[in-house]
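HOLO CASE FILE
Compound: 4'-deoxy-4'-aminopyridoxal-5'-phosphate
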Amino acid sequence: MNGPNPELMCLIGAEQVRETEASISPFDRGYLFADGIYEVIAILDGKLIDAERHWARLQRSCAEIDLPLPMPIEELKQAILGLVETNNVTEGRVYFQVTRGVAERDFAFPDDPQPQLFAFTRQVPVADTASSRKGIKAITVEDLRWKRRDIKSIALLPQTMAKQAAKKAGAGEAIMVEDGLITEGSSSTIHMIKDDVLVTRMLTREVLPGVTRATVFDVAREQGIEIQERAFSVEEALAADELFLTSASALVQGIVELDGHTIADGKVGVMTDRLRELYIEVGLKA
Ligand code: PMP
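Model generated. Tokens follow.
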């Protein structure tokens, strides 16, 4: 990925525009205040995975910040699906965001907002990647974010800093920690398996309600796997039988090293592998 691609279209509002020709006003509140909401959906076999849960979360996040959608949700879905089709994406992802649009620069919301939609797609391997086969390294960082992390805001500076720290350390993800407890990854939900139990932090305002998390729970329940929704510490994660993350970008991905310590035998765990396989299977069937 290297910025705008002249061969691809993107969405500015409902309109498909060549990426290299797309522009928005610097007066857009997304640019001035990071006043907006985003979503990322994985694409496999040309199909949007877990789309219903992503549309629902978009609507919820927007409602929480009083941000109207720029068009009825059905039209927004059709615009996104149309873009995926135009760009012929068979495997990869679609990113989309709604911002509060152009207005006079004033902290309070405009009375007559003109919300803006922007979307783009990328064709990238999702189902079979080296990271999913071998697992990734992760580091822990302090969680520096605000108090409404359940809202999928485009204000991501703490997460970019966390990811940069991971990159510098040669790791694939930064796991954020608050009061000694893991909140979530910089762009993922963190889970562990201990004594055959799937342990994942409960949903509160401290974390994003992961879409992949929800579907992995469905899959785990079908497999008869016990789920405990509770916060867990870095020490517990280090002593886990399996540690993994979930996200629309990585699906289910094993974490084999944390802060330089090997997790279990240093290989992607059996249950992690199984959950990944089943997640993909369910996603393709839906
Ligand atoms: N937490 C955070 C902070 C994230 O950015 C993401 C990815 N958007 C997730 C969790 C995982 O959510 P999802 O499974 O819906 O991609």
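CASE NOTES: The longest helix spans residues 270-285. Helices lie at 29-33, 51-64, 73-86, 130-134, 157-168, 211-222, 234-238, 270-285.
CLOSED: yes
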